[in-house]
Amino acid sequence: MSKSRQKNDKQLQGLHAAPKNTLIFFILALFGFILYGNTIANDYALDDIYVITENKFTKEGIEGIGNLVSKHFFAGYFGEKEVMLAGGRYRPLSMVTFAVEFEMFGKNPHLSHFINILLFILTGFCLYSVLKLLFLPEEKRSWYLHIPLIATLLFMAHPIHTEVVANIKGRDEIMAFLGSLLSLQLVLKYLDSKKPLLLLYAFFSFFLALMSKEIAATFVLIIPLTVYFFRSAKVRNYIEILLPIVFATVLFVIIRQGVLSGLKTMPSNELLDNPFVQATISQKYATIVYTLGLYIKLLVFPHPLTWDYYPYHIMLVNWMDLRTILSLIIYIGMAVSALILLKRKSIISWGIIGFGIALAPVSNLFFPVGTFMAERFLYIPSFFFCIVMAWLICEKLPLLIKNARQFHTVAISLTIIFSVLFSIKTISRNTAWKDDFTLYSTDVKTSSNSARGNDIVGEWYAFLANKPENSAQKQEYLQKAYEHINKAVEIHPAYQNALFQLGNLMYDYKKDIDSTIYYYCRVLKLDSNENNVLRNSDLILRSLADTAQKRKLCLQLFALNHTRFEIIYNLATAYGYSNLDEAVPLMYKAYTLQPQNIEVLKFLGSAYYTMKDYKNAVQFFEKSLKLQPNDKPVLQDLYFTWLALGNKTKAAEYLALASRQ
């Protein structure tokens, strides 16, 4: 194991001692901008819609901060609707930074990307500073071959972090980890110096980390774990350092519970919110173990990368699947190694346990996270992976290569190879985050079996097809839209939005009204009051000249919803004046739903006139006239109706009014 940092600073001096932090920080800052500088030109993408572009509280700027702090994470986008995420979400601090940016600079994604880069670089500074407190440099080794610098470079370069840094919304992850690292640094400094003020600073930094994202709570375990491995602490020391951390956590939990107490957060039965809803218990846990193996694979070989791990980019598997078995063997091996090496305080043991603690909350093992997995979930766990990699290079490689010069060459070569390969992948991956369409159209090639990815990119192609500047590519875009959305429905037959979009395409692209209503009906079977379907159905049915077809389609809709005005009205008009026995009861029901609807009043007036029920005809014509006093056709209808009733005076009155129009 590497020596813990317990020696006096004078013992660390030598010809090969590292240069001052200023130079190291300059290198890290330059490296950070090389890695992510190309994101500054990017637009908003993916989840930015929830936290910035369509979040009403964020767009209120400073005035919206009160709501951002006092309401759940999605309130500014969804309002006070039920959130189909177990436990809810409360992450106000990053949202506050977005509101401040909006107040000062308006809608400016380039500035927001720049700030993400700065915060990521600060994380690099903090990580390096923490590692200097953990690992003692070898006096006879070049300063650039020490664990703190190599681990920090590997962490910053790792492509798995692109989802966090290149997506503006990922700032919550960055700030949570930054605050947690700073707390760890302050705790370590306290143990070395015994300055009580450092614990107060640790309390504030950890509280802010929690207010950024709940995942920071893992450091309640990671901090004492690190102290155990890298310091000779007594029970009293653990109590001292845990008091501010636990107090910050309790305070956060109290605030969080107060904010979320009235929020309904029932787990969803929708596949795209709960990917295991169609799985057996056995399949669920076999698939979770399989995804845990994928996390290891992405740490070692981060390709391909995607934002989209929704069903069924990852397929449900069982315990006989070789990939599940291999993943289980790997994790059992890691657990056994961690236990065997625990008493020796091995870095391997620390890394495995810390990795497990950081990954556990987002693993789906203990509560659902809404997707099979996500690359952003590896942001904190990768911290341990990169440190272990650096430790193997700096501490274990010399045991294999005794010659100092050869070790120097091999160690430098390995560091460069990993850093360069990671960097190339990171810089390349950033381009996919240019904007929504670029991200979705790029990643659907990787996540080709994802219902959500296919649906979203299909919607984008349909949107682009209707832009005037794309008239030459309209049919091509509509064809791509159809292919992707149809595939989304094949993957997930109960996917409401995809069914709705497919219905729209049947109308816009295929010109097939029957198929349009067929897909709309499939949506209504899932949600009989889906407003978008009912609105579009109304527009289509009103435009239909073929009354037989209109009646057939209306009856299909009516069988699924016989209480909505749009369906009832259109079915009544489909029966029309040729079948008033069916039409009038329906139209009267429509009248009870919308008594101020002029079209309904006119229809009923004309229908009752045709049926020679002149008293009811007068009643509805006059109600219509109160809403539109100068409506000449209605005035004429009233003239004929009063004439039929034998009231020539009233008839003459309305005839005179009609003649003036």
* Shape, principal axes of CA atoms: elongated
The helix tally amounts to: 30
Write the element-wise H/E pattern from the N-terminal end onward.
HHHHHHHHHHHHHHHHHHHHHHHHHHHHHH
What's the number of extended β-strand segments?
0
- DSSP helix fraction: 55-70%
Low-pLDDT residue intervals, each spanning 5 or more residues? 1-16
Salient structural properties:
about 650 residues; mainly alpha; Serine Threonine Protein Phosphatase 5, Tetratricopeptide repeat; 2 domains; about 65% helix
How are the SSEs ordered, and which strands pair?
Layout lengths: L20 H16 L11 H6 L11 H6 L4 H4 L13 H14 L3 H26 L12 H11 L4 H4 L5 H23 L3 H16 L6 H12 L4 H26 L20 H20 L21 H19 L6 H13 L21 H20 L3 H27 L5 H11 L4 H15 L8 H18 L4 H13 L4 H14 L4 H13 L3 H12 L6 H11 L4 H14 L4 H13 L3 H14 L4 H13 L3 H13 L1
Helix pairs in contact: 1-6, 1-7, 5-10, 6-7, 6-9, 7-16, 7-17, 9-10, 10-12, 11-12, 11-15, 13-14, 14-15, 15-16, 16-17, 18-19, 19-20, 19-21, 20-21, 21-22, 22-23, 22-24, 24-25, 25-26, 26-27, 27-28, 28-29, 29-30
